[in-house]
Amino acid sequence: MSEFNGLGMGLGNLSRLSKAKTRSISAENFDGAKGKGGMATEGTGAEPGRDLGKGWKISPSIMIEANKSYTIAEIEGPGVIQHIWMTCFPAHWRTLIIRMYWDGEENPSVEVPFGDFFCNGWNERCNVNSLPIAVNPAGGMNSYWEMPFRKSAKITVENISEDEFPLYYQVDYSLTEIPSDVAYFHAQWRRSNPLDYKDVHTIVDGIKGHGHYVGTYMAWQVNNNGWWGEGEIKFYMDGDEEFPTICGTGTEDYFGGAWNFEQPKGEYGTFSTAYLGMPQVIKPDGLYHANQRFGMYRWHIMDPIRFEEDLRVTIQALGWRSGRRYLPLQDDIASVAYWYQAEPHQPFPKLASKDDLEII
Description:
CATH architecture of the largest domain: Sandwich
């Protein structure tokens, strides 16, 4: 068994010994060096720790200044990131952009707003209890996506807001050899606001190469009355043009629910499971919340969508109109696509502007 198989440990091989070296990067050990954690003499905890000194939580976080980028992790490989924990104030979840780069690449393989990456796309806290993403009270964001690299890994965050705020983070990884058939982690954010009439929301396109699609998160605002989830998701792969190879049967079906997510009668039933869920329903409040908003995820961990040449993923927004006819909707839809592929990857479209990212 390769060393790598002892890293993303399921319970079936948890007892197997490995020569992998476990390391961790945080504000208490900026480069993850062995035996160098907790040595800070200055930092965001210096004032409360002034009577205790070095080793007593002197640097638990960093201050993120307005309109600046920070490299929070830079690792020389080969290795694999196994867990990321972060937290910051919800007001900044759309204006803090996470980017990840593998093996010195110029274009990021991951470019997603902070909250959306962790299945919290509305700047309002929502607990998530799934296998690769766990969000816990009160805003502890955890990723268990396996992120291998052969030469190097770099994680940056960019604050595009006018505010300064603290960021707490920890990146747990192992240094080990990576087999030749292991692919690289990717994630991309897109938004249609509003979706054009009779158009479809594109979750991702322009993927070229060999890989497999492993997940979807959607932050969906409904701009009409009535049910909104009749639309089908479609996976166009390996040369598909007008029609896809995989076509779903409805939005709530794709996310693992049925019959309008209606349980109990007259209400949306939230749920969060290992592989799929709708953990967030934000209702109109009669004052500032004018539209219903939903957060949903679907992880293709047990059923990855495999492609050899290319991939495009779209979803329809459909409701009902008179005469029991479908109504194409013009909703506010944001999504994150998660996938693995061999490098190099195609450069992503330019990320939306600050105004186009804004939750209104």
